[in-house]
Amino acid sequence: MKDEAKDITTQPIExxxxxxxxxxxxTPAKKKRVRKAKATDxxxxxxxxxxYSFSDPNQLIQAVTHVSALKSGRKRGDSYQRLEFLGDHxxxxxxSDMLYHAFPNAxxxxxxxxxxxxxxxxxxxDVAKSLGLLDDIKLGSVGPSADARLRKxxxxxxxxxxxxxxxxxxxxxxxxxxxxxxxxxxxxxxxxPLRDPKTxxxxxxxxxxxxxxxxxxxxxxxPHHDPQFRVAVDLPGLAPAEGIGGSKRAAEKVxxxxxxxxxxxxxxxxx
Length: 271
Known about the structure:
Strands 1-2-3 form a three-stranded antiparallel beta sheet. 56% of the residues lie in helices and 7% in strands. Helix 4 packs parallel to helix 8 and helix 6 (121-130) packs across helix 8 (155-187). The termini are far apart. The protein is built from ten helices and three strands; from the N terminus they run αααααααααβββα. The chain folds into two domains: 63-187, Ribonuclease iii, N-terminal Endonuclease Domain, Chain A, CATH 1.10.1520; 197-263, Double Stranded RNA Binding Domain, CATH 3.30.160. It is mainly alpha-helical. A hairpin with a 6-residue loop joins strand 2 (228-234) and strand 3.
């Protein structure tokens, strides 16, 4: 009996057969490896479009991560915001140097105007669009309509954050190369007069016989020392346009810019 019992307990257990044509179920470890591989591929594609390969890929991930995508317990500093602060100043320095050498006969006032045009949020957003960064932004669950609106409103900030990330990862030379590659052509384009988007919208409304645009605060989020304002601008007969910024004034400008672009102010739709 003992020998029979021994024979039974030592028989190998056959693996459960997987029906032909069906894939074996993924284990948690395999799922994790698949997710990691997909993230690595996405990062590689993003780096290719940016034209810079990161030694620390986490810098790039942080640069495109909105605070809404952070898991509970993580700090706001783990989002793009700190990198945006850094990138904003790196961009200003590099473009200032570019302008200084490109326009040797321009005085300080002329250089300042050109600088302001090149580093404004709309210019940064244009660069981000040309690099296809819109879909790379990592957001939390904000809803479909808010998702598209939020991506568009922070696109310029994300571009500056990417510059900050490149600066931290590769130093001034790498960041300078990125800026020169994406701003040199813009620098040599004829400079358009700088105008406040709120002023542009107001003048357009008056020309249409409409009242002065009305701005209203829709939402305020974030801590007292680092608030985020969402502001809407209203004009009779038109859908409201919204903007987000670190101050009411900044959010109002974004909202005005959104309505200007949507209504084709100054463009083919501006009749």
